[in-house]
């Protein structure tokens, strides 16, 4: 089946992200014909480090399997491929919380409360199942196009009844969003996860990390966290921040975990602060962010780079005219582009990816489709020329994706460009 098919079933498509312990790929479940996310354990250090990473990886799979809640990413399967463990999870559309704040800036308080409420309910479900997350931060929160708030990456999760997996001198978590009690070496509890929720709310409401942007050194962050702590929001003048929400964030970020509100108290407080729009505002904000990302991706894709080791052989693609002297039959891809394509992508698989992207469009999986079809369009343009039928077909479907995401002006411009190139080609063929 090849190294890009795990367990004889999961065909890897692109790299989504990489952390200290694992890499996450978008993949196709060939058995059920659906898109999934596959997390694979990375090789880490010597035997002791590898053993610790493997135990954490297995604990993540066990923890996720114990939680059944829409606010926690669903796990479908797990296994081992050529000695490397992997977990198969649902593939989420939408954007990450960190991306949303970076794109929009501070969120309106009702929307921040809505995201916080989703996170709180997910944490309550995890805690009820005996699972502590231990790394609650914006990059581990996704918001789908339907407005569903989802906690993911339980890589540091701890099952309450099991001992902690630690290394001497190791700081387990992300200092900007890590509870000071954990930094002091205290045993993790539900209150530490709720601190992470409060720190995320701080980012949503202010647009800046809770411990500021200047302190990038881990030691400096730890000193701030266990010393002065997160700056208070209550009593700040202006900004339209409801005092009830400001006081809740301050309470969640208290130094002593015993002084923080419970998940039930937090949920009740956040529910009081919601708008009565049934989530429409959050969905519209996510849709705008997705649309902006797609437009940027289509018009500014990763650049082709001749330094990458992986080659594309385009000899199998029929050409109606000879390639120009500046067009090479083999291309190399930059790291960014390789994340969007199958490794060792051949001409035949490129055409196959184009058909697969069209099927994604027809199925409504627009975010996945626009990434795939843009990568194919970029490579086709460089290998075959900008007016080759394969290139123009890819660009046509790029425009369809933009139109379906609501980027009408950009879609129309791209449709016009494709139409003009097609007419020019027809006229040249007639001549």
UniProtKB/TrEMBL annotation:
Keywords: ATP-binding, Kinase, Nucleotide-binding, Serine/threonine-protein kinase, Transferase. It is an enzyme of class 2 (transferase). It holds the Pfam family Pkinase. InterPro entries: Kinase-like_dom_sf, Prot_kinase_dom, Protein_kinase_ATP_BS, TPR-like_helical_dom_sf. ATP binds at residue 39. Its EC number is 2.7.11.1. It comes from the Bacteria. Residues 10-274 form the Protein kinase domain. CDD domains: STKc_PknB_like. GO terms for molecular function: kinase activity. PANTHER family: MITOGEN-ACTIVATED PROTEIN KINASE KINASE KINASE 20-RELATED, SERINE_THREONINE-PROTEIN KINASE NEKL-3. This is non-specific serine/threonine protein kinase. It comes from Streptomyces yunnanensis.
């Amino acid at each position: 089946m090849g190294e890009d098919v795990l367990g004889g079933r999961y065909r890897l498509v692109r790299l989504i992200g990489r952390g200290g312990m694992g890499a996450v790929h978008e993949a196709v479940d060939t058995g059920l014909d659906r898109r999934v996310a596959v997390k694979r354990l990375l090789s880490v250090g010597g035997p002791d480090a590898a053993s610790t990473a493997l135990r954490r990886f297995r604990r993540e799979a066990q923890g996720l399997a114990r939680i059944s809640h829409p606010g926690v990413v669903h796990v479908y399967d797990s296994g081992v491929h050529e000695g490397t463990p992997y977990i198969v999870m649902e593939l989420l559309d939408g954007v990450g919380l960190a991306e949303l704040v970076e794109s929009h800036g501070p969120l309106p308080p009702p929307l921040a409360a809505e995201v916080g409420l989703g996170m709180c309910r997910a944490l309550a479900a995890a805690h009820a199942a005996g699972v502590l997350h231990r790394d609650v931060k914006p990059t581990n929160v996704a918001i789908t196009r339907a407005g569903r708030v989802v906690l993911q990456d339980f890589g540091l999760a701890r099952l309450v009844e099991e001992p902690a997996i630690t290394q001497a001198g190791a700081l387990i978590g992300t200092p900007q969003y890590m509870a000071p009690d954990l930094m002091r070496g205290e045993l993790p509890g539900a209150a530490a996860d709720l601190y992470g929720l409060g720190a995320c709310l701080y980012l949503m409401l202010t647009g800046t990390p809770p411990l500021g942007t200047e302190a990038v050194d881990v030691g400096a962050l730890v000193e701030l966290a266990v010393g002065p702590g997160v700056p208070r929001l209550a009593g700040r003048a202006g900004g339209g921040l409801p005092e009830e929400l400001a006081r809740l964030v301050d309470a969640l970020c208290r130094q002593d975990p015993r002084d923080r509100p419970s998940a039930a108290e937090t949920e009740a407080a956040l529910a009081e602060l919601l708008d009565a729009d049934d989530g429409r505002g959050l969905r519209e904000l996510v849709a705008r962010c997705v649309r902006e990302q797609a437009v940027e991706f289509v018009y500014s894709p990763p650049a082709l780079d001749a330094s990458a080791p992986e080659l594309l052989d385009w000899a199998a693609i029929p050409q109606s005219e000879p390639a120009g002297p500046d067009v090479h039959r083999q291309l190399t891809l930059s790291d960014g582009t390789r994340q969007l394509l199958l490794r060792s992508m051949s001409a035949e698989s490129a055409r196959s990816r184009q058909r697969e992207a069209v099927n994604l469009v027809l199925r409504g999986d627009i975010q996945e489709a626009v990434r795939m079809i843009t990568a194919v369009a970029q490579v086709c343009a460089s290998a075959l020329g900008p007016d080759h039928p394969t290139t123009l077909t890819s660009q046509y479907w790029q425009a369809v994706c933009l139109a379906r995401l609501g980027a009408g002006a950009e879609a129309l411009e791209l449709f016009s460009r494709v139409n003009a190139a097609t007419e020019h080609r027809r006229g040249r063929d007639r001549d």
